[in-house]
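Bumping my old thread because nobody answered last time. Still need a sequence for this structure:
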């Protein structure tokens, strides 16, 4: 069950507009699969993902309410700015949780690929890592190129989309590895005792 939730979650997380549901399913999937397979890191990743999801929703709700509160009088703007500091702190905490969740996902995906011998999941992890590296490299380009960097971000989106779809398909189609065969001995059994 956890593998199915996880695979569907990764596919949905790659698709715009339904990705928020996919992210929640990924977190639930890691927790469920971690319980099924008795893997502590997978469970922790799921719990951290659920907490990150809740924190991000709360931070967005706080920021939205502050934005609408600031649309009033100058006094309302002052109160909104004071409340904005709390919202900024919530966003920073949520961001830290999300970054840790992302790192743990990569580790768990790589472990999953080894446990289930899934080449598609390994390729997805490599694509995710390349996407992250390219996104970090693109940050200075945005400052210098402005709108010209938009095409680069579209490329990053496509790369992330492919990684998510590959991860989802790899998880859904992964088969349990057969246990190693027991070695057969050709020696004769010892003689019975006298």
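Sorry it took so long. Here it is:
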């Amino acid at each position: 069950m956890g593998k199915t939730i996880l695979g569907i979650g990764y596919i949905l997380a790659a698709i715009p507009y339904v990705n928020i549901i996919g992210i929640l399913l990924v977190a639930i999937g890691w927790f469920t699969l971690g319980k099924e397979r008795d893997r502590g890191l997978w469970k922790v990743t799921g719990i951290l993902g659920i907490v990150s999801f809740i924190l991000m929703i709360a931070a967005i709700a706080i920021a939205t309410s502050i934005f609408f509160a600031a649309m009033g009088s100058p006094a309302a703007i002052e109160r909104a700015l004071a409340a904005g500091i709390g919202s900024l702190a919530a966003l920073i905490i949520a961001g830290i949780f999300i970054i840790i969740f992302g790192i743990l996902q990569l580790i768990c995906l790589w472990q999953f690929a080894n446990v289930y011998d899934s080449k598609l999941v390994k390729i997805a992890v490599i694509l995710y890592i390349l996407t992250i590296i390219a996104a970090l490299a693109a940050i200075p380009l945005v400052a210098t190129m402005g709108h010209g960097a938009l095409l680069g971000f579209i490329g990053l989106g496509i790369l992330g989309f492919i990684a998510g779809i590959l991860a989802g398909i790899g998880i859904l189609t992964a088969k349990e590895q057969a246990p190693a065969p027991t070695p057969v001995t050709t020696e004769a059994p010892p003689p019975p005792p006298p």
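The longest helix spans residues 74-116. Let me know if any region looks off to you.
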